[in-house]
Amino acid sequence: MALEETGIIYTFDKARNYTDNTAFQPIACLENQPMPYSDLPVTPVTQSRLSQVDFDNLGFGSIFSDHMFSMVYENGAWQNPQIMPYQALALEPGVAMLHYGQTVFDGYKAFRGEDGQARIFRPERNAARLHDSCQRLCIPIMPVDELTELMIQATRQLIELDHAWMPSAWGHSLYIRPLIIATEATLEVRAATSYRFIIMTSPVGSYFTNLQQGVSLRVEDRYTRAASIGGLGAAKTAANYAASLLPGAQSRAQGFDQVLWLDGNEHRYVEEVGAMNIFFKIDGRVITPPLGGSILPGVVRDSAITLLHDWGIPVEQRRIAIDEVVDALQAGALEEMFGAGTAAVICPVSSIGYRDEVYRVASAPPGKLTLRLYDELTGIQYGRIEDSHDWNICLPLPQPATDDDAS
Fold first, then answer.
1. pTM check: above 0.85
2. Sign of CA dihedral 126, 128, 131, 137
3. Residues 352, 218: contact at Cβ < 8 Å?
4. If we measure between CA atoms, which residue out of 337, 359, 358 comes closest to residue 348?
5. What is the count of structural domains for the chain?
6. Does residue 366 have a cis bond before it (omega within 30 degrees)?
7. Residue-wise pLDDT tens digits, 343-394
8. How far is C-alpha 11 from the geometric centre of its chain's CA atoms?
9. Quick one: angle between helices 123-136 and 144-161, nearest 10?
10. Strands 215-220 and 334-341
11. Is the dihedral of CA 12, 18, 24, 26 positive or negative?
């Protein structure tokens, strides 16, 4: 079904450049970036919760902005897209999602630049991944180009409405969480016939609080995150994260920050970290496990690989055994190890625990390459560095009133 049939027409207009007169010279939005102009119906909140937010202690993902996007799938069609106050959902106990886990989600960020613009980082990639996740979970979904336009439009309006919720501190951002859940009340084991699509936003701080020291990983050689062939690993769905909770809790109880997952067949080859894709720099070569159905295709992973190619640094996307990693650590050949993900951007790894031994990376984190990638990506996201790949979608934010305005 085309979105035009719902009464809301989604089209793109040319992006517009916005500048200000501050001493900071922004990297302007590029002219070839799409900006949707069709507005979704809005029901604003009657009372904002913004005054309750302590922006000095945001944490990650526990605070939600005033508004959310909502759309329903009923009678074979996606319909009634709108912006409404963030609110609790009324769900029957028999809803299929609660029993059979038919749900998908994704996550991307918008950043407040010093130039008064918000920059949404690569949302079209998240829309494509959400589309793929829906297909794997048997959730009916609109064509990917229409989904992309809808998500960008909804995100733009949410930011415009809740711009005051967007943090200004470096390293902080507005996290954007699309979510689709099955809402039909049925105990039959089958795909549901009704769904709800929600996009919520959350002001967040850093995902990890010890980035300068790096995070520690425990290699999981008993439990499996996702089947290596034919499973759900490449989909962003609740089941993958539910499977990670027990090993994650065990890792934290042993003093580690995250789990380093191995393949589901042999428990021999490295796959990914709990919240990130993983990279190794061994003897000057950058290595990361290949995508192949069990590893989530990370947007920041793709961005990091693109930047490394730009810099003339080859990246080997290949299987790497945990024994090869341990051997490199013992020989001092593993120069850097880092994770890449939306939540943490680029995160140095200081050590891994494997079979009752802890192995430390040769150089103190963050390594030079890790830091370069972090600085480049965050510089692009906040508008301090030229966005040569057109990754950002920009929109102006209302400027705070000044004394001159009052006079």
1. yes
2. negative
3. yes
4. 337
5. 2
6. yes
7. 889 999 999 999 999 999 977 778 999 999 999 999 999 999 999 999 999 9
8. 25
9. 130
10. unpaired
11. positive
